[in-house]
Amino acid sequence: MMSGNENLSDVLSGVYHALSASRRCHVIQLLARSEDGTLSVRDLAREIAAIEEEVEPEKATGEPYRNVYNALSQTHLSTLSDADIIIYDSNRQTVVAGPNLDIAALLIVLNQATYQTLRGDSLPEPVDFDSTSIGD
User: Which of 82, 83, 109, 128 could form a Cys-Cys staple with 18, CB 3.0–4.6 A?
Assistant: First the structure.
């Protein structure tokens, strides 16, 4: 996760910066859920355009798709790569998980829970670990 020259503060700063754009968060979530840990930029752009347009992925075409694809290629994927969240192969137009993907995915979940709490939404009941056994 960290090289010899980096400290935890630098890593977290880079990861939090990467999380400041919703499209980058979508890339992280989609990659974390992918079966083989590899996605094409085309597939990412289609999925993100579908989320933004609130349509099925096969209907995410045209200008919305092109806008997302260009933004990913020109800005977002390099930012995620700089934070070691992904490994971006610009020649093959593929993305694979980087060493900080799990940290970024966890921070997204924690941030969502924090946002829900601040909004006053109810959270699931905490688990009572003392009364729960592995077989339950």
Answer: 83
Q: Give every CB contact of residue 93 below 8 A, 6+ residues apart in sequence.
A: 40, 41, 42, 73
CA gap 122, 124 in Å, rounded:
7
Find the helix or strand (DSSP H, E) in which 54 lies: none
Structural domains present in the chain: 9-111 (1.10.10.10)
DSSP state of 55: S
Q: What angle do CA 40, 111, 52 make, to 5 degrees?
A: 45
Instruction: Note the pLDDT of residue 123.
Output: 58
DSSP H helix total and E strand total for the chain:
6, 3
Q: CB under 8 Å to 79, separation ≥6 — which residues?
A: 17, 18, 21, 24
Report how far apart the first and last C-alpha atoms of the chain are (Å, whole number). 34
Using alpha carbons, select from 54, 81, 88, 50 the residue that is nearest to residue 68: 50
Any idea which residue has 């060493």 for tokens?
A: 99
